[in-house]
Specification:
The chain is an alpha+beta fold. The protein contains five helices and eleven strands; from the N terminus they run αβββαβββαβββαβαβ. An eight-stranded mixed beta sheet has the order 4-11-5-10-9-8-7-6, sandwiched between helices. Strands 1-2-3 form a three-stranded antiparallel beta sheet.
Length: 233
């Protein structure tokens, strides 16, 4: 298991937006976020100061929420807590990666179907331009998209597998596992390491990821805060 010392995985959204995903970044001072129609994630320094939080308020706007993944941070008292969820970060330890003949690469033309599948399965945040973050694969049955998964956070040496979901009528067939193996195969071909996140309460998914060859790296926190109604410039 990889050490947590000075790893980009400790603040992956920050590492991604400062690196491979810099083209999607919106920034104010030390606060940065993805363009909202791409991804809802934002990032602050590991130990943000009051000035950093002021930057974040200017970035998102008064009364607007900011989603901070992985890093456990505490905002100033005038910020509101919208969501706080414990999670886990898992990394490729011995994934039996392999391409999948039935998996096809999805394109912008597939986004309406992808958004519909996400709406019905709720695998996590997915926006109209999320597909631009990396490769997304899907499996179709009778021409209908029934399973998908793709690449979200891309940081130096690492790529996150995300949005893996299967239509309820097609669950129990191992489609999600096949897509994860296929995505891991593509990530490894680039010389990078796959990783993923899950809610700590989703023990079924965590057991599946362990079976596939992912190992727990660390416990993390997913938080969403609301900026003050009055912003001091």
């Amino acid at each position: 298991m990889e050490s947590s010392t000075s790893s980009p995985l400790d603040n992956p959204a920050l590492a991604a937006l400062a690196g491979p995903h810099a083209r999607f970044a919106e920034r104010h001072g030390n606060a940065v976020r993805y363009q909202p129609d791409v991804c809802p994630m934002a990032a602050l320094p590991d130990d943000p100061t009051a000035a950093d939080w002021a930057d974040a308020a200017m970035l998102v706007g008064a009364g607007t929420s900011i989603f901070v993944p992985v890093v456990d941070v505490t905002p100033p008292a005038d910020w509101g807590l919208q969501m706080r969820m414990k999670g886990v970060q898992m990394v490729d330890d011995a994934v039996a990666s392999a391409p999948d003949d039935e998996a096809v690469e999805l394109t912008a033309d597939d986004v309406p179907e992808m958004l519909d599948l996400v709406r019905r399965t709720e695998p996590g945040p997915f926006r109209p331009r999320t597909i631009e973050l990396g490769t997304y694969l899907g499996i179709r049955r009778g021409g209908r998209l029934v399973a998908m998964g793709g690449e979200r956070l891309h940081l130096p040496g690492w790529t996150e597998i995300s949005a893996v979901c299967t239509d309820p009528d097609n669950q129990g067939q191992g489609l999600g596992s096949r897509l994860i193996r296929a995505l891991a195969h593509g990530i490894r071909l680039r010389g990078e390491v796959p990783f993923l996140h899950a809610s700590a309460s989703n023990t079924t998914a965590i057991r599946l990821y362990e079976t596939l060859g992912f190992a727990l790296r660390r416990e993390v926190m997913f938080q969403s805060f609301t900026a003050p109604q009055e912003i001091r410039k």
